[in-house]
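Q: What structure does this chain adopt?
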Amino acid sequence: MPGTWSGEERETGGGQAHSPTACMRNPNGCRMVKTFQAYLPNKCHRTYSCVHCRAHLANHDELISKSFQGSQGRAYLFNSVVNVGCGPAEERVLLTGLHAVADIYCECCKTTLGWKYEHAFESSQKYKEGKYIIELAHMIKDNGWD
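A:
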């Protein structure tokens, strides 16, 4: 069962390279398996990573907009992300109106990073559905930024 010390974690990401599986035992002697971490391909020279654990989060080519506001300051809108888990969706009134959003967190260190837009109630906001917000406070630029 995912999330338990003795359970197997399933592989994340489709067709991407993963780190080796780390198999250890907790203090109770139960076997635990580290979650696989998705790495963005080397061709993605500009990537964004979690500031807390350096897990890859997004390729710069997936960036849609830098003009968003999160609860902790500026935030970026991405088309797709990796190494991110999603909580349950809930309705929230944001600066641009009512949306159904789900908090997203880093699969590696469990830090809340931002949210995923599940549903936009206003037609002008529909372009956000299925997209991800990551707050700048939780990510850093990696690989090939000048």
